[in-house]
Amino acid sequence: PAPTPAPVAPGTGSGHVVEEALDPSHYAYDGAYGPAHWGEVNPAWSMCSKGTSQSPIDLMAADAQTLPADSDITPLTMAHFQDVGMYLPDTDKNTFKNRAFVSFNGHAITTSSPLASYFIHKTAWYQLLQFHFHTPSEHRFEGFASDAEIHMVHQTLAGSLAVIGIMVDEGPTSPPFIQDLFRALPSTSSGPQQFTLNITQMLTDIGVPASPTSFYTYAGSLTTPPCSEKVHWIVLRKKITMQAAHITALKNIMKSNARPVQPRNGRTVYAAT
User: In 107-116, which positions are buried (b, 16+ CB within 10 angstroms) versus exposed (e)?
Assistant: First the structure.
């Protein structure tokens, strides 16, 4: 029989370029796997390119409508959150009281807690699944990005998603929960590292007060594949600060992991004051 031909390297031999198949489980923030191509990499991510209510968006005060007085959107106060850890006594048996785990999953620094924390929105209770970071911010205020953004991802038992976004600018100090997190932060992808996290203190640190705080809210999507829509977004209008060393550490680990702003497509943005 004729000898088996030697393999032909892509782009050589017959003159036909052989394209490398895309890995449908991988996404990135630039190149062939970047945000502009997420919808092409995996058919299950088609909403990333075809969706009409995508996030993030540019939030502008002049375009936002005042939240109606009879709206079912819940004001954001400390009374609308429940931290299970608060009700546990301080004993050796409560190993996970005020404990959380932080890891870098290759895309974002992500934190989760074994104890439940909830907030009420539109008459439904949402459980905190995790919070993670983006650098720079994904949402913009008046066309300008902040140095970072924190996303607190919540879900109801029925699967409805709500995300609280916190914009972060460089400043002289970082809140206590950030300082505790960075003491445990891994420098590369690794297993979860335990650190101290008091959710009630964290809410205070990000500016959730006893009286209603101001925020933007709109109907959007996840900002990473599969870019699922029908996500309730609540973006706090008051920013927090993080010291330069902490923001630099985020950038060194995650690089740039912000999806570009998406078209509003006529969506209404409400401003609660």
Answer: bbbbbbbebe
